[in-house]
Amino acid sequence: MAPPQIPEAPSARMWRDSLLRRFITASDPGHKVRFVAITCALVLVIGFADYLTGVELSLLVFYLIPVCMAVAAVGWRFGVAVSVLSVATWFGGDILAERHAANLFVLSWNAVIALFTYLTVAWLLASLLALHREMGERVRQRTAALTEEIAERVRLEKVVLEITERERRTIGHELHDGLSQHLTGTALVAQAAAARIGSRFPDEAAELGKIVNLIEQGIEQTRRLAKGLLLAEIERDGLLEALGDLAAKTRAQWGVDCRLEAAAAPDLGGSGTATHLYRIAEEATRNGIRHGRARAVSIRLVSDSGSLILRIEDDGTGIPAHRARGAGLGLRIMAHRAAIIGATFSARPRPGGGTVVECRLPHL
């Protein structure tokens, strides 16, 4: 399963961020030269306009535009230079406008205040841009670390699931080839003993016959358990048959009313998808009976809105809220199996009591 991707921003925001990033990180010398030329030309244009307006209208605030452009596009040093150039341009324009000498002190004072303002704005903008770059780098680093951690966790979950399947098969072989054969041998010995003493001790022989019947029932139960544990990977068109066997086995083993409802054989795309769906149904059915003490279980496999839906409902006591949020190991395993095949998984209380486990797989 591929690591989750970070969702993209809307197109307008992407365009704005791209433009801002290109404007802020113009590291190419050609870009910087163009920005220097544009900024200086803009200062001269504003200065000429300021010269034409005369004393009555001051354009000092408009010099902040080239100052900010200089800091953002080139750097804070060029921002300082543009600040000095802006003040000098404004001051020179006023001198060239032949204003009275008595206003020279006022002009100088205004020039100092304007320079201080420009330098303050340049410093604040440079600090803000530096913080923006630092935060962006931190976000990239943490995103990479989180993506790596998620990928590692998914890999470990797959390994754990593979180990679980391998242990299932090992236990199944032990039950089938070990315990089942041992019980069979025990039953044969008991039958032979009953045959030897049958004529002399009929009551004891009858008791041995009962023991043989119990042993044979144990053999049958052991074989059913081994068959469930040794279930091979289900073929993509064999899911319905496997779910039918699961319902029959549940009725025989637990004595509950377990029914399968399915319209038609589903078309499953990926290899192993049927096996994962079967294991989800098996785990949900077992949980409903063992933990919820259900007396009726319904297994439904239907198609709806372009999706294949596997839904297991029971009439048991339900699951606690913390287990519904995924605290239970069985629920986590079922959710992980669903995620492997690209399906969504949910477990929720059933109206009227019980639990509904649903796995929704988009059609491939």
Brief overview:
Helix content is 66%, strand content 10%. The chain has 364 residues and is α+β, with helices and mostly antiparallel strands. Residues 1-12 and 19-27 have low confidence and may be disordered.
Describe the 3D structure.
The protein is α+β, with helices and mostly antiparallel strands and 364 residues long. The protein is 66% helix and 10% strand. It is built from ten helices and five strands, in the order H-H-H-H-H-H-H-E-H-E-E-H-H-E-E. Strands 1-2-3-5-4 form a five-stranded mixed β-sheet, covered by helices on one side. A hairpin with a 5-residue loop joins strand 4 and strand 5 (355-362). The longest helix is centred in the middle third of the chain and has 94 residues, at 104-197. The protein is rod-shaped. The two termini are 16 Å apart. Mean pLDDT is 80; it is low at 1-12 and 19-27.
Layout of strands and helices, then pairs:
Blueprint: H1 11-24, H2 29-53, H3 64-73, H4 76-96, H5 104-197, H6 202-229, H7 239-254, E1 257-262, H8 273-290, E2 296-304, E3 307-314, H9 321-324, H10 329-340, E4 344-349, E5 355-362
Helix pairs in contact: 2-3, 2-4, 3-4, 3-5, 4-5, 5-6, 7-8, 8-10
